[in-house]
Design a protein that fits this description.
The protein is of the alpha/beta class and about 425 residues long. The chain folds into three domains: about 160 residues, P-loop containing nucleotide triphosphate hydrolases (Rossmann fold, 3-Layer(aba) Sandwich), CATH 3.40.50; about 180 residues, Rossmann fold (3-Layer(aba) Sandwich); about 80 residues, 2-Layer Sandwich (GMP Synthetase, Chain A, domain 3). A seven-stranded mixed beta sheet has the order 8-9-10-7-11-12-13, sandwiched between helices. A hairpin with an 8-residue loop joins strand 8 and strand 9. The chain is globular. It starts with a strand and ends with a strand. The protein binds guanosine-5'-diphosphate (2 copies). One guanosine-5'-diphosphate binds next to helix 1. It comes from Salsuginibacillus halophilus.
């Protein structure tokens, strides 16, 4: 299930970031803590009257030191490309400016629904300022105050009215949905091309739908795969294309629709913080994960290099001890053929369902050999474990007191499961529950 997207556009200082925070409320959003950037959240989840949607603050996409008019232009283009509904933020106290007119001009041609948020109308005496904005000739203007929170009911009603119907994935359950993610220039599109190179490929252009992605379907050795959301990798030359925040947003959208995420690392450059952030998103969403070190052709190496590199990755991605590591070169095609078989394996592990009695045997044996240490005179007792769902495999562990279930013991149980069962590439979740 894909949620529709709403993007906020508008010139600087009209209150986009304030509006964004109002709509998102206290919900978690991606935290981009780049120093020197005032606004750290640009992408979040919102809902209104049971309609869920993504919200993007295009003002947070760094487009460099461009002149103002260029900035609002690229933000408007981004919104058109990404969003189902565009929230055009203006400053009601200042009225329509040339930059507003430019945004309106771009949006008018786009065929996407637009709602105009006429901001900074902090009291009722100012409400009449809203009428001027009908002159922009796009969308309904709604008086709001980001600071006070007024008008947001009407604004959200208007936005939700234009959201498209929920859009189910057209692929059957057996199809493995694969996202190739990573920061700019690590070789994602080269890798996608190398993977699909020899296969029969169906490219379905989903532009205009909620998905707004180009999916590539592949069939290999009796298995269907679909490569998700490679559109952003193909459309080149946009100003925002190579910014980190944009790539995080792209990754997030692709991850949401995927079963397995391939995190691509540039073997030549090594791991940087941004790689971890992107991999972290896939981990938090509970997707199957593989680490692919690309550009291996460009790395000077001897017989030990792969082993050393793997150790380095384990060090850098401590939360991803379960992810298989593959080395390859999209440029020469070396070892690219190992990807899909591994993806299939990871997808199977991600969907693993373990029989309850074997599960309990394994865990109870481990617990008997290695009981939890006592904590202030009290000792954790595990009663039994049961798998409650798959993708990722999720277990409820019944115990005397969940407060005594410390991270180290959770890790011990997880490692026990991993040693006993085929779970490479998939995160696991253990839920502590008090036994009544
Ligand atoms: P952005 O650059 O469009 O994201 O704008 P910001 O959200 O950073 O807001 C710019 C300035 O306008 C800040 O000083 C905000 O406190 C202020 N501001 C935002 N919304 C309102 C509002 O509804 N009323 C008033 N009076 N000020 C606001
Ligand atoms: P993306 O931004 O992650 O999609 O990266 P691209 O696929 O556009 O690749 C970025 C750059 O890396 C391009 O110049 C590619 O030619 C180069 N590149 C990609 N894969 C490889 C590889 O396996 N080896 C080498 N040496 N260069 C590569």
């Amino acid at each position: 299930m894909t949620k529709p997207t709403v993007a906020i556009v508008g010139r600087p200082n009209v209150g986009k970031s304030t509006i964004f925070n109002r709509i998102i409320g206290q919900r978690m959003a991606i935290v981009e803590d780049t120093p020197g950037v005032t606004r750290d959240r640009i992408y979040g989840n919102a809902d209104w009257v049971n309609q869920e949607f993504h919200l993007i603050d295009t003002g947070g996409i760094d487009t460099g030191d461009e002149p103002l008019i260029e900035q609002v232009r690229s933000q408007a283009e981004l919104a058109i490309e990404e969003a189902d509904v565009i929230l055009f933020a203006t400053n009601g106290r200042e009225g329509i400016t040339p930059a507003d007119e430019e945004v309106a001009r771009i949006l008018r041609g786009a065929g996407k629904p637009v709602v105009i948020g006429v901001n900074k109308l902090d009291n009722w005496q100012m409400q009449d300022f809203v009428y001027e904005f009908y002159n922009l000739g796009i969308g309904e203007p709604v008086a709001i105050s980001g600071s006070h929170g007024s008008g947001f009911g009407d604004l959200l009603d208007e936005i939700v009215k234009h959201l498209p119907e929920k859009d189910d994935d057209p692929y059957d359950e057996e199809t493995i949905r694969l996202a190739v993610i990573g920061r700019p220039n690590v070789g994602k599109s080269s890798l996608v091309n190398a993977i699909v190179g020899e296969e029969r490929v169906i490219v379905s252009d989903m532009a205009g739908t909620t998905r707004d992605a180009i999916d590539t379907e592949i069939h290999q050795d009796g298995q269907d795969y679909v490569l998700i959301d490679t559109a952003g990798m193909r459309k080149r030359g946009k100003v925002y294309e190579n910014t980190e925040k944009y790539s995080v947003m792209r990754a997030m959208k692709a991850i949401e629709r995927s079963d397995v995420a391939i995190v691509v690392i540039d073997g030549e450059q090594g791991v940087i913080e941004h790689d971890k952030k992107i991999a972290g998103l896939a981990h938090d969403e509970g997707r199957g994960i593989m680490l692919v070190v690309n550009k291996w052709d460009a790395v000077e190496k001897d017989g030990r290099t792969m082993k050393q590199y793997t150790e380095l990755l384990r060090e850098e991605f401590q939360f991803l001890t379960y992810a298989p590591v593959l080395f390859m070169s999209a440029a020469t095609g070396a070892r690219v053929q190992h990807i899909l078989p591994k993806v299939k394996e990871v997808a199977e592990n991600h969907n693993m369902r373990l029989p309850t009695h074997i599960l309990n045997e394994v865990i109870m044996d481990a617990v008997a050999v290695n009981p939890a240490p006592s904590d202030k005179g009290r000792r954790l007792r595990i009663n039994y474990i049961t798998q409650v769902s798959t993708a990722p495999p999720t277990f409820t562990v019944f115990m005397n007191d969940p407060e005594l279930f410390h991270f180290s013991y959770e890790r011990f149980l997880e490692n026990t499961l991993r040693r006993s069962f085929q779970l490479e590439g998939t995160p696991l979740r253990l839920l502590a529950r008090k036994k009544n």
